[in-house]
User: What shape does this take?
Amino acid sequence: MLDPDAAKIWHAVTVRGGTAGLADEIAVPTGQNPRVVGERIAAFINELLVAGVLVDTARPARRKRGWWR
Assistant: This one.
């Protein structure tokens, strides 16, 4: 289960196609700094990319080395 902010990030990435304006959407109502929230959003997305949960389709896929190389 995702907390409410993580769910907003997931929705933005998978449905809206990006996180433009999301830091403000999360930060402003709670009195947080949008820049800091934006950095946390980027870090969370990076963790999802590293874990293989998300795939950046804008980057070419990396080839995995097989046992034959």
In short: The mean pLDDT is 88. The two ends are 40 Å apart (CA to CA). Residues 46 and 54 are 9 Å apart (CA to CA).
